[in-house]
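Here is a complete protein record:
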Amino acid sequence: MKRVGCITVFTACLCVACASPPDAATDGAGTARTPAGQALTPQAAMDMIAIGRSRKADVSSALGTAVVVPFDSGYEVWVYRWAGADRTPRAATELVVLFAPSGVATKARIRPGLAPVD
């Protein structure tokens, strides 16, 4: 019975996290900004990353704090989001950066948000 309760709580937390607007983080994580605090477009943010040369500190300094997804292998995915037209996670545009265990950016891509559902 205790296990069922833990699974229920975990599922509820996951649903709340997935349903939150992209800019819901109170610490600003995942919002790309210049060191001066100015907002960046997704393409401008991606242009600041040099694949094979930019390190985590470089990207963090240039774009701010990301939403970080670490993996046991040592790789990390950093995500920056821009709210879509209907302010849902589905409509958000994302810049996704993959860091190797060495801390160097190995891939980056922009995932455009999906159109609002009617």
In short: Confidence is low (pLDDT under 50) at residues 1-27. The longest strand covers residues 76-82. The chain has three helices and four strands.
